[in-house]
Amino acid sequence: MTGPYATTITVVALFCAAWALISAAANRPRGLALLASGLVLEALLLGFAVGGIVQMAGSDQNLARGEFVMYLLGALAIPPAAFVWAWGDRSRAGTAVIALAFLITPVMVLRVQQVWAGSVG
Amino acid sequence: MADRGDQGDSEALTGPAPTGRGFGRFLVAVYGLFALAATSRSAVQLATDFSEAPLAYLLSALAALVYVVATVSLARGDMTSRRLATLAISIELVGVLVVGTASLLLPDSFPKATVWTSFGSGYGFVPLVLPFVGLWWLRHTR
């Protein structure tokens, strides 16, 4: 949960977020590359969610299980929802929506880790 | 964050509703995020330990409802939705101010956090700013 895999997600998400923000600021039209970066991130998040739930099932550690799963699924749901909503708007606002989703992902990963560590009740 | 995004807005004839376009597209996304956050938090709270802090948990559920209604109505943007959005965002404004103040003055009544506790400090104070932006946007697009 706190290993290099989670760090990778955070780094990829921040990198994509920076890219999306620059695109939005420069008013560049969004392209397929942005979609591809979203797919990469989503694949990583899927692995995170599956791995997290498997790890949770195999652990007798005392943690808020409902919250843990909720955060994992939430992190998984945000990028696709953002892309669907953003794709309806060709302006920079659409790109900003995607940037927002990328920016939120590290926060979600952090919350998953906090719940795993039991520091959030 | 205050990216207007109005330029380069090449909407088709069947483009989205005015409140969900340009900056509104972004605003709806932020509301959607809070709808998700508040709904999940509230669902977990109500399902696991409602008796522990009924007031806080009911407020969480109210916050969740308000965010969901605001998100959907801002995204739709027709006349009825617009009224609904104004109502929801007004409740949101009152809620964050009242709960924010109360949680500071009477911390014992709020043993568990809601989205609005301490004016939304757990969410970077975005819950405090959001209703003002929302109401401004509704006026702006009128």
General description of the model:
The complex is a heterodimer of chains A (121) and B (142). Chain A is mainly α. Helix content of chain A is 79%, strand content 0%. Chain B has 142 residues and is an all-alpha fold. In chain B, helix 1 runs antiparallel to helix 2 and helix 1 crosses helix 4. The interface between A and B is medium-sized, with 29 and 29 residues.
Based on CA atoms alone, the radius of gyration of chain A comes out at 15 Å
Spans of chain B of at least 5 consecutive residues whose pLDDT stays below 50 are: 1-16
Distance between the termini of chain A: 18 Å
User: Helix amount of chain B, in percent?
Assistant: 55-70%
Average of the residue pLDDT scores of chain B: 84
Q: Name the pair of protein chains with the most residues at their interface, and give those residue counts.
A: A-B, 29 and 29 residues
Largest sheet of chain B: none
Strand content of chain B: under 5%
The radius of gyration computed from the alpha-carbon positions of chain B, rounded to a whole number of angstroms, is 16 Å
Number of strands of chain B: 0
Gross morphology of chain B: elongated
Low-confidence stretches of chain A: none
